[in-house]
Amino acid sequence: MSNWVKVAPFDEFPKLGSRVVRTKNKDNADIEIGVFRTEDDRIFAINNLCPHKGGPLSQGIVYGDKVACPLHSWKISLVDGKAEEPDVGETACFKTKVEDGIVYLELKD
Length: 109
Hints:
Elements: E1 2-9, E2 18-24, E3 30-37, E4 43-47, E5 61-63, E6 66-68, E7 75-77, E8 93-94, E9 96-99, E10 102-108
Antiparallel strand pairs: 1-10, 2-3, 3-4, 4-8, 5-6, 6-7, 9-10
């Protein structure tokens, strides 16, 4: 089952910027999700923790469809959450949609 939650108006996301959504996972543990806007106005959401050392991806530099972790510059794909080679690792991705100018994030039950 899925649950679409309202995040914020699309216009509140700066180009190449992000926002953090704090929620709980299926085990009731706290998680942070980074929701990103690319230069070409696409919206992506991934776990806010870099798979390398847990850096806050929402504070990284967004370029193309990737974000560079602010701690060690690992490049993480916003499309599939995978680290760019030669680095290895990945973080969870979440579905997003924009309806009537509002960004929504899909959370799984």
